[in-house]
């Protein structure tokens, strides 16, 4: 066996003395977010915000902390509306429900078409909405032509925006290129969280509790991995394989 290219850098692991305090803060923040998830269930005016909250939680890499609450929220949305969603953020609604095993009709995408059967050009005025449309098209199944058309439409316009000389190397351009390279549902949650946390932090309307929880949780998980690497490195060094 050749010597490890990492050397002995993983041997030493200094566990934080304040970890118990951090765990307590995380527990408190989790309870706050849990309440936010549950409080919107019985108020139809908050169902769109509820879906957006679930989406952000997933993209911040902390959905595993709220699996039961997320399942309950999406089940409730599906039970109340079925295929006939009446709130905003239609593309997020479609993607979330389908990605969690709720089959909802794609007919709602026809509402985004004009009288000629083409997708409305006004969709390109809002890049966030265009990105949501693009991500939603990856939830298609065979034979859903409207989603195939939506995918081609969204991809063509996103590529055009990303290649615009005025947008090149901008924050928006990088977000689009990341989406074109790999859609959300194909990304590794932990790596996606590392990319999304600074994006979410720059949003004026970000949820402070959610953002702090995501950062603390990311650091805690990273700390666990470091500890495991240290234990494994020590085992290997003591093993002293010839």
Automatic annotation (TrEMBL):
<keyword id="KW-0460">Magnesium</keyword>
<keyword id="KW-0456">Lyase</keyword>
<dbReference type="Pfam" id="PF01397">
    <property type="entry name" value="Terpene_synth"/>
</dbReference>
<dbReference type="InterPro" id="IPR008949">
    <property type="entry name" value="Isoprenoid_synthase_dom_sf"/>
</dbReference>
<dbReference type="GO" id="GO:0016114">
    <property type="term" value="P:terpenoid biosynthetic process"/>
</dbReference>
<dbReference type="InterPro" id="IPR008930">
    <property type="entry name" value="Terpenoid_cyclase/PrenylTrfase"/>
</dbReference>
<dbReference type="InterPro" id="IPR001906">
    <property type="entry name" value="Terpene_synth_N"/>
</dbReference>
<protein>
    <submittedName>
        <fullName>Germacrene D synthase</fullName>
    </submittedName>
</protein>
<dbReference type="GO" id="GO:0010333">
    <property type="term" value="F:terpene synthase activity"/>
</dbReference>
<dbReference type="InterPro" id="IPR036965">
    <property type="entry name" value="Terpene_synth_N_sf"/>
</dbReference>
<dbReference type="InterPro" id="IPR050148">
    <property type="entry name" value="Terpene_synthase-like"/>
</dbReference>
<feature type="domain" description="Terpene synthase N-terminal">
    <location>
        <begin position="5"/>
        <end position="180"/>
    </location>
</feature>
